[in-house]
## 1
Amino acid sequence: ASPSHGMTLIGGSRRHMIIAASASAYQVDPLTISTDVTIRGTGAILERNAGNQVVDITAGTVSITGLKVRLSAGGGGADGIKCAAATLRLRQVTLEDNDDRGLDTNNCIVDVTQSVFSGNKVSGIRIVDGRASIRNSFFFNNGSNTAAAGGLSLNPNTTPNLVEFNTIVKNKAANNANSAGGIVCATGSAAIIARNNLVYESVMASEVLGSSCTHSYSVIGSANPPAGTMVRSMTRAEVGLANLDGTTLADYRLTGSSMLRGAADPAPSPAADSVDYDGQPRPNPTGMPA
């Protein structure tokens, strides 16, 4: 009757686990995953109120859909999900209010889509080695005034790497030349394609940092928009989010007047990016420029 007990039953032909939705959170200590498994948990919440990461992935090919993972505690290492030497796919997952990072990976193959990272005290995501695809996701209110990267900290060592169609706003980092609130692409990392993103109003710090990312068709705050194809800045009114001073996912959605609508790369997107966060076909409304 608990996710941890469910994992003891995974093996052989048993490779799927459904975590039932519940009004109260499941407490784990942590949920340890070391084998191939597909987990579906729409409406379910995992928490750990002491002792570091909530979910600890140490091996296997792991797919997680629908879970909310939050409130890790314990300071350094208190991540929502930690992944080492595994393959991890997150879809429609929320990682929020964790003491350290929402997702922290080391030598993993990572695919994140249609997910939300908010209120994590060090950063939304850290990628060390391995490679990553991060698409159609929201990153807001992550980081602190001592963090090196509030939203995304990227240091992959293999390719391909893609950061696309993400809303990265109001993340916080230290106010120095080695930090950025939105995206940090480590010097010397494998190449990262960053396109069709909004990186905006980072707190205290610059928006982006590092030459390993190639930015294109993106709107990046006026603090330091990098060189790139169709990379530009906009005013708050032109960006047109529902409430740039808010704290919820709804606050960072586009309004009908937003100039971001139809501003992505007009070339056809890969099949994986043909829908948006809500699963609606892109572009939406139909008939707009791509």
## 2
Amino acid sequence: MSQPRVLVVEHQSDAGLGLVGERLRAHEVEVVTVGPDVGAEVPGSLAGFDALIVLGGSMGPTEDARAPWLPATRKLLAEAVAAELPTLGICLGAQLLATATGGHVRTMPQGPEVGVHEVRFAEGAAADPLFADLAGAKLPAVQWHWLEADRLPAAAQVLASNGACENQAFRIGERAWGVQFHPEALAQTAQDWADDGAEDLRGIGLTGEAVVDSVRAAEPELRAAWSQVADRFVDLVRSDRA
């Protein structure tokens, strides 16, 4: 049997697959990346793909004038939910998933969440196909968001939260997950974001050096926790395909 094909929507080159990509390559999954910086248009459908991953980016989920590929991305996310295709939306990807299925995204009223912050998985996550092993756990995660999905569609299940953001992880339908945090991000990604967003960090009283140092210190825990989740996502893709 041929390897699973995963479509990845990348909004900008400094917000790539990172650790998740490492795990996909380790499992010999075929990754097809589309987006402006790779010079490939977002396709009109998911035909020929076994899973969808939508990554983060600096734009909002409805800033279509700034990022004209967003309507096509939202359409793919809605298609994936309807088809029960394994789907993972990360940060902006999670916000796009919520928006595409009737939810709402807002600017965080208490300010952005940046750096390494814990997320707590609900006990109810024990029945979730992707996060079951993390039910009740508190784990460090890289956060870098000024927006949040504050309202999810009625059928969504919240899987993880923290004090800054109620909807840190959620599932819509049977096979579509959104995570507001960044399971793909390690120290080098944080460094890239800090370099690009130094002024934004100063505006919220942070320095790039401090943020990157916190990610680097937590990297062993980050790698251990989120590698397992990426591996389980691959397992789901394979089992659904079979």
## 3
Amino acid sequence: NPEDSFYIMNLNHINTAYEEWTRAFPTIRPFYAVKCNPDRHIVERLAGLGAGFDCASPGEIDLVLDCGVHPSNIIYANPVKRIFDLQYARNLGVMVTTLDSIEELEKIQRYCPDMEVILRIKASDPTAKCVLSNKYGAELEDCAEIIQKAGNQLVGVSFHVGSGARDPSAYQRAIREAMKIIKDKNLK
């Protein structure tokens, strides 16, 4: 139907990008944010290369699992998770989730206390096409309380500087803050 939209993609570009990533960052495993393009072919290709997946909804989790990905390769990364969705992910075997606030940590500890957590810190590139610091990330002054209360559940630190980020110093600042937390907490 000429009225239908469509697109053509070369999945080999995914291989090239993945190879470049692993060459530049050999100790950092990428987790593909499914929400940016939930195409089954992309998910399957990335799964075959060894990527992990950042899922923000039960539907995204279902898609990734349906592509044969093991639940241990999924992070449930919604900033404000409904209790039902959190338990849904946990019941499917997704054992890692992100959190941006003490309230999210308390919810996770109450309803899914065996899940591990990744603290997402606030980071921003004010020149990004889509500034996300108003949506994602714990305020740095709240991190000490979250870290203390999370204890051994805390297994990592992440950040999102914004979509279409243009300022490399935003990454430098975020990486510095994440490294400080990782070193202070003695995370891997």
